[in-house]
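Suppose you are handed a protein chain with no further information: no name, no annotation, nothing but its sequence. What can you learn? This example shows the usual starting point.
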Amino acid sequence: MIHIIVVLSLLLPIPMPLIAIAIGVGYGLIKYFRIILKHLFTHKMILALFGIGTIGSLLSQNTAGLIVVMLLFGLWIYFITLSQEMTSFLFEGATSVLLIASWFHAGYALLQHLKIFFGPDYHAWHESMISWRDGRADSVFLNPNYYAFMCVVYILIALYKAQTSQAKVRYYLTILINMLGVVFTQSRTAFAVIFIVIFTFYYCALPHSQRKWLRIGAIGTLAISPLFQLLPRFDYGTIVAHLVDIRFEIWQVSLHAFLKRAFFGYGPFAYRMLHTTYGSYPTQHAHNLYIDSLLNYGIVGVILLICVLVWLIKRMMPLRSTHTPLFALGMSCIALILTHGLLDVSILFVHTLSVMGFLFIYMLKKEAH
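A reasonable first move is to predict its three-dimensional structure. Written in structure tokens, the prediction is:
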């Protein structure tokens, strides 16, 4: 029951999942305390990452980073609890709920896109946060890029469901709805990422003899790519100017700061703290997952992150022959994180990270059986 509550909370604004996950952590500590302790000392690389994040935050007096480390540690405890009770029934039911909810998220996003309804004033919370009043939709996810990331996750889940179900039409309609959701967000990064992750999914899901259709699809996508300029904020000249004016400034400042504390970094949310020091563009992160990881965790932390990623991929590889659609979902989710991370850091938001954790925990559970 507790996991259903957590999943339902992920359909709501940010306070709700934080409260639900906190309840889940308490439930796990009461029911699985010994198992949680065992996992803490078994997965030494993950524990070391929390240690590095804590040290970096303390040394740089990064209070927000220290809070994020504690929140991530609590989420890890919940994931351990979830792994003990994950079942196929829970996974299939929860992912179905997410897809149904995605229709409502898209409807809400349409109202925001048409400027009929606006969300809360986030800028009043902190100067580095933006309130969207220009037609960019964030639905319930705080930021249009976070919602765009969620739309792509919904698309991948729908692709997986279409591969494992006879009722394919509703899943293809869900894919279309969430593609429209991405259009409502006007997220340029997500526009490109959608095609990459869909290609990855089918490359992993289809037998070798049918992969010629992927090549045809890729060529067709490239052929119609000039039409993408008809989409909002997708004029190529505007994209280049935007990158030069904002992201390059953020990256230069982040790399400069990283070199001053290269081994252990400044802790999570480092750029949020450093932009005032350097007088650079105010935002929450470095708008590049790789640069942001170096800034937050340093070289040592990034090496540990790479080791964890390699471990995850190795654990998933047996699914390639035993549960091919699930393997395709896992690999396309990794492709989503890595490619979307080239221009953004959407994976570290509570909704996105929690849903990804839910998916990967089921894959690891399946592999273990």
